[in-house]
Amino acid sequence: MTVRLIGWTHFDVLGAEEETGWTPDDDDMAERSSNGSYLTEFAGRACYASWSKPNPATATNAGYMAHILEVGHESVLEHAVATVYITNVSRAFSHEMIRHRHISPSQLSQRFVNLVGPNGPTSDDFVVPPLFEGDEEAIEVLHGVWKTAVEAYQRLVEMYEDRLSEAPVQTITGRRKTIREAARAVLPNMTPTALVLTGNHRAWRHFINLRAQYAADAEMRHVAIDVFHTLSRAFPALYQDMRTVLGDQGFYVETVR
């Protein structure tokens, strides 16, 4: 499983300065324009027209965002978004992920992409649930189920490629999609997939707080922890009150108040 940050909010710092006279604390223009932390600070200051910085504790972006997080004024986090690309996760994960309706998904299409061959997984490619990782006996069971499913899928695709080869009403692409959408009925939850996910930072924090916990699905917890590490490295001020903790049942993310 991989999590990669591929997109984020651009902030027109010069325009904001011209309108308000407010100046971010960082002199690096590239950093200021590409870091959603400054946009969230601007949004917070806009609520109260607090463009001057008389209080040293909130004069920096990190200090101001620490205050925002402390008082729970998280609506300003909704103005900045981050997009991640997640690969080699299971369809079971994606079924859970789409329940987070404030995070927008675009997912690998099982209708368009063939399961086997150069554009899709092979008979050895499946997602092992965290509980079974390193357990050769359990993985052997999973491999047997996966191999049977792939063979059934391939057989159904080949059968209907032949049976529908003369169908006059569909294009080649349309016929392939028709066949694959039916053949995918045999695919199990461990089928690998990939998603592009975009959410504002309030939505991402909510996702992490819910899913990077012991009570969450194990694969979801692993992904949520990786998302936290990815976003907290890129936007440290927005996640400064959260940290990874090693407990009795492995790692989880804790919010410090």
Keywords:
Alpha-Beta Plaits; 3 domains; four-stranded antiparallel beta sheet; two-stranded antiparallel sheet; 9 helices; 44% helix
Q: What is the helical fraction, as a range of percent?
A: 40-55%
Largest sheet: 4 strands, antiparallel
Return the CATH class of the largest domain: Alpha Beta
Supply Rg. Answer: 23 Å
Tally of helical segments: 9
Outline the low-pLDDT stretches.
none
How does this structure look, described?
The model has no long low-confidence stretch (mean pLDDT 91). A hairpin with a 2-residue loop joins β5 and β6. This protein folds into 3 domains: 9-79, no CATH class; 84-106 and 193-255, 2-Layer Sandwich (Alpha-Beta Plaits); 121-190, no CATH class. The chain has helices at 13-20, 29-34, 36-48, 61-71, 91-97, 136-163, 172-183, 201-211, 218-234, and strands at 2-8, 81-90, 103-107, 192-200, 242-247, 250-255. By secondary structure, it is an alpha+beta fold.
SSE diagram, text form:
Elements lengths: L1 E7 L4 H8 L8 H6 L1 H13 L12 H11 L9 E10 H7 L5 E5 L28 H28 L8 H12 L8 E9 H11 L6 H17 L7 E6 L2 E6 L2
Antiparallel strand pairs: 1-2, 2-4, 3-4, 5-6
Helix pairs in contact: 3-4, 6-7, 8-9
Summarize the structure.
With 257 residues, the protein is α+β, with helices and mostly antiparallel strands.
